[in-house]
Batch of 4 targets.
Target 1
Amino acid sequence: MTTIFLVLLIILAISTVFFLTAFFQSPNWLSRITVIDTTSVMTACAICLLAALHGNEHLLDAALLVAMIAFVGTTAVLHFMPLDERETE
């Protein structure tokens, strides 16, 4: 069972690296914000996997907190971004 969790954590780490390279190669801010939001969701998933691996339910609270902060941060950035920067090129 722990092998499955470790394989899933490795897959999440590899996909995080791919998303971070996409962050540096993205042409506009909207794509970068989407990459940051996706990376924070993957971080919350990794915390949930660690909670299941160690049997620690307190880590689930941390994962929920990370997901809520990511949602509020993404929404706030998009709310205050000027309309001309939201358009794709």
Note: The longest helix spans residues 29-54.
Target 2
Amino acid sequence: MPKYNFNIMWFFGRNHMNQLKVSFGKRLQQLRSECGITQEQLANAVDLTVESISNIERGVYGPKFDTLEKIAVALQVPVKKLFEFDST
């Protein structure tokens, strides 16, 4: 399989990626609140630190793919529901 030198930041642009992280973080915070669980409870459920959950919710950085599934399981939602936010 050929390897490609693909820079996702170049493809989507830095501002778009930052907005995606912020939107995802807000959605995560909303779903977590709706489930009635704290950042600490979510962090324990997905094997992350509270600081990591806080950083994700604030859009500082996004979760890894394997963490997405753990978050969805902890919140008892399909993974796609984590991305149901207004992208504007």
Note: Helices lie at 8-12, 14-35, 39-46, 50-57, 65-75.
Target 3
Amino acid sequence: MEAYPVAALRLWGIPTDGYRSPQNVQIREDLLDAMAAEGLPLNLGRWRTTLMASSDGIDALTCALVARLASRPDRVTGQPQQACRSTSTW
């Protein structure tokens, strides 16, 4: 499986502008809130602060969600499911 974090976020209707800039902690916090609002399975607990500190954390979380959703397509509907479809041309 291959995942593209920005593409997945955009398919889910989540704005991605500026989240990769190191100083944009608020944008990453808003992005996490938007992910939860879209119904993505999040239970971040103490990891929320760590994820807000870097775009790498957001990217890793997004890729993990894509993998999880792809393994359980029967439990996903709407926009999140679209990011799980295989579009490989191999």
Note: The longest helix spans residues 55-71.
Target 4
Amino acid sequence: RFIGGLWLGAGLLLVAGAFALDRLRQALIVLTAMVFVGGLARLSVLDTGLLLSASIAPSLLFEIVLFPLLGFWVARTESGNSHRA
């Protein structure tokens, strides 16, 4: 339940960040960095068969590629212009 609560909190922070990017910018950057570090920690298993399995590989790809890109995007988005496309 504890880990589920953490993921719920992270998801709610991401949703809130969609509406209040300027106020939550630093928290979103920290959150994306934490997910990235978690993905790197997952690599410590050193079992490529497990890491490349259909149940692990998609989330690992998101953690190592998508979340850093999201963090960089949040960091580069200008204050006051978060509603621009």
Note: The mean pLDDT is 90.
